[in-house]
User: What shape does this take?
Amino acid sequence: MLLKEILQEKTFADLHKKNKWIQALKKGDLKEIKENLFVLIDGVYGPLGGHVRIKNPNSVLDPKLTHWEAINLDDDPNADAVIFGSQRFGVKISGFGHDGKGGKKAVIKQLIKVLNRRGFWIEASHRPAEIFMASKRVPFLDQQKDVEKIFGSVTWLGNPGWYIRDLPSGKKTEQEMVFGRPKI
Assistant: This one.
């Protein structure tokens, strides 16, 4: 990379105010901060084998990912937490990332807030599902017919809304739940 390019690179702080979730990040913004966002996302999903879509900084620019929001919480100029998603029955949250410090708490609080808005939802398992259930503030789909409106046939594991489904690859998901308020 040329020195001129390095000096022209922008940080999240150059583009947005501190301590405020910025929604609907523009493609130009994403291009400027894609490395920062990738580091946050890979920090969460890397130990699990990586995010299914975000494999490198350029993946942040995937046109199917239409919803982006991020926040800077500390004195460094980079975003500390990010949430992203695609258009499907509203906005399906596809993933999130954080710095492992203050960003971790911020992303959980923001997800709880976002998942209470009509049209925002996430399919979750493991620790995220436990957090949403424990909060008692995140709605979830507890009817098989509602989940099947989104995914087609699922193997229902019973209340409170757990299921397994077939993926296009032929593999099965782990036990999952739909949290939030999808437009179904």
Observations:
- The chain has two domains: 3-114, 122-128+139-184.
